[in-house]
Specification:
- With 459 residues, the protein is mainly α.
- It has three domains: 14-106, Fumarase/aspartase (N-terminal domain) (Fumarase C, Chain B, domain 1); 113-190 and 224-357, Fumarase/aspartase (Central domain) (Fumarase C, Chain A, domain 2, Up-down Bundle), CATH 1.20.200; 361-457, Ribonucleotide Reductase Protein R1, domain 1 (Orthogonal Bundle).
- Helix content is 62%, strand content 4%.
- It has 20 helices and four strands.
- It has helices spanning 14-20, 23-26, 30-46, 52-71, 83-95, 97-100, 108-143, 164-189, 208-214, 224-229, 232-258, 286-309, 322-347, 352-360, 366-375, 380-396, 406-410, 420-423, 426-431, 441-457, and strands spanning 149-154, 157-163, 266-267, 349-350.
- A two-stranded antiparallel sheet has the order 1-2. Strands 3-4 form a two-stranded antiparallel ribbon.
- Strand 1 (149-154) and strand 2 form a beta hairpin.
- Helix 8 runs antiparallel to helix 11 and helix 8 runs parallel beside helix 20 (441-457).
- The longest helix is centred in the N-terminal third of the chain and has 36 residues, at 108-143.
- The relative contact order is 0.10.
């Protein structure tokens, strides 16, 4: 069925039809299209625009189509232009002329805008649930590692002592923000475009507040031009997903490094690793490498959406058909990465002794040695210079701050006494950092409890 056949004298060229068609990718929105159509048919009946019997007949037909698609009894017609035309055509085949009344006071422009909002609302809530599961897994790992000492890094150089729990909770904060960004985007997009029609609304006395209520929107879009041509929500969601993938890529990069023999902080489970076709000793972190690569793909989806929209005049333009493949791809890849990363994290073994040994060899307690001198009365910059000289001496003599004799310390300052060894003890250095946001076990435990409360509030 070609909707504009009355205007045209020639049949559409198959090449035009194939190029124009979107059913190959928008068929995934069949539930949303049917849900929106049921709400529209309900409203048409309630407002007396079509008869009550026609409304009921349409609704029953749509529910039957949905059930047949889900059970496999009905297959998509790939010759249809899009999911909207496929469902309307199938409905008309089943219930006759009543099916043709469904499109009264509606355009495909507001229909597709509605379907995409409904689809993204569902998908983003699924991603939020996955993020909650990831945070819960990170919390479990943190609770097992409140006392696990490891080096913290800046510039990929060992810097100061932290705990593995503190490390996990850093990513918890990032993923919390991802949840808030996505939930915020959902709140902003929760306006109903249905009733905007092609661009100028309709002369029928429709009730857009009724369809908004039926579809769980906060209310209708207040401008019909904007209602059909707005894709801010897709761009905003793609932006949020890109930031999420940046965080996933960062933790993946660290797992890639940590699984190498140069670090050997973790051992990935065999079920979440791959081998080499030629080197029998290899155990490759392919999952995290793919996540790192897929982050670029999601960034590309965001740029595709921004570029597609940047010069479009009001209202709807066919360019906007390109929105779906980009946002679908971003959603699919984010979900795939989360679904795979969570169990990989759960099964990863953390090699605590290797982390502790790395912490001991990196002079990461040098700041604590400087603080020791400050507490004895020296200005920090003076203390900093003295400890820098001590570190240089220790390197030249193949020693650490822990293995230097007190006599060696006193060559640099008479303020050093035997209590320096207590001050530079890694466990004490961590436990003394009780400032809010610090790595002290008691501080991290409080942080964990705060995050648990946060998760309880996210619906």
């Amino acid at each position: 069925m070609v909707m504009w056949e009355g205007r045209f004298k020639k049949e559409i060229d198959k090449r035009t039809n194939d190029f124009n068609s979107s059913i190959s990718f928008d068929k995934r929105m069949y539930k949303e299209d049917i849900t929106g159509s049921i709400a529209h048919a309900t409203m048409l009946g309630e407002c007396g625009i079509i008869s009550s019997d026609e409304s009921k007949k349409i609704i029953e037909g749509l529910k039957e189509i949905c059930n047949d698609l889900e059970t496999g009894k009905l297959e998509f017609d790939m010759e249809a232009e899009d999911i909207h035309m496929f469902i309307e055509s199938e409905l008309t085949k089943r219930i006759g002329d009543a099916g043709k009344r469904l499109h009264t006071a509606r355009s495909r422009n507001d229909q597709v805008a509605l379907d995409l909002r409904l689809y993204l609302r569902h998908e983003i809530n699924d991603i939020v649930d996955l993020l909650k599961s990831l945070i819960e897994e990170l919390i479990l790992k943190a609770q097992d590692n409140y006392e696990t000492i490891m080096p913290g890094y800046t510039h990929l150089q060992r810097a100061q002592p932290i705990t593995l729990a503190h490390y996990f909770m850093a990513y918890v904060e990032m993923f919390k923000r991802d949840i808030l960004r996505l939930k915020d985007a959902l709140q902003r997009m929760n306006e109903n475009p249905l009733g905007s029609c092609a661009l100028a609304g309709t002369t029928y006395a429709t009730d857009r507040y009724l369809t908004s209520k039926l579809l769980d929107f906060d209310g209708p879009c207040l401008n019909s031009l904007d209602g059909v041509s707005d894709r801010d929500y897709a761009i905003e969601i793609a932006s949020g997903l890109s930031i999420l993938m940046m965080h996933m890529s960062r933790i993946s990069e660290e797992f890639i490094m940590w699984s190498s023999h140069e670090f050997k902080f973790i051992e990935l489970d065999d079920s979440f690793s791959t081998g080499s076709s030629i080197m029998p000793q290899k155990k490759n972190p392919d999952i995290t490498e793919l996540i790192r690569g897929k982050s670029g793909r999601v960034y590309g989806d965001l740029m595709a959406l921004l570029t597609m929209m940047k010069s479009l005049p009001l209202a709807y333009d066919k360019d906007m058909q390109e929105d779906k493949e980009a946002i679908f791809d971003a959603v699919d890849n984010v979900k795939m990465c989360l679904i795979t990363f969570i169990p990989m994290l759960s099964t990863t073994t953390f090699l605590k002794d290797n982390m502790l040994n790395a912490a001991k060899r990196g002079f990461i307690n040098a700041t604590d040695a400087a603080d020791y001198l400050v507490k004895k009365g020296l200005p920090f910059r003076t203390a900093y210079k003295i400890v820098g000289s001590i570190v240089s001496y220790a390197i030249d003599n193949d020693k650490t701050l822990d293995t230097m004799e007190i006599s060696e310390y006193q060559q640099f300052s008479e303020l050093f006494d035997k209590d320096i060894y207590k001050a530079i003890d890694l466990n004490k250095a961590v436990k003394d950092r009780i400032v809010v946001g610090g790595p002290a076990p008691e501080t991290v435990k409080k942080h964990v409890e705060e995050v648990k409360k946060f998760l309880e509030k996210i619906d």
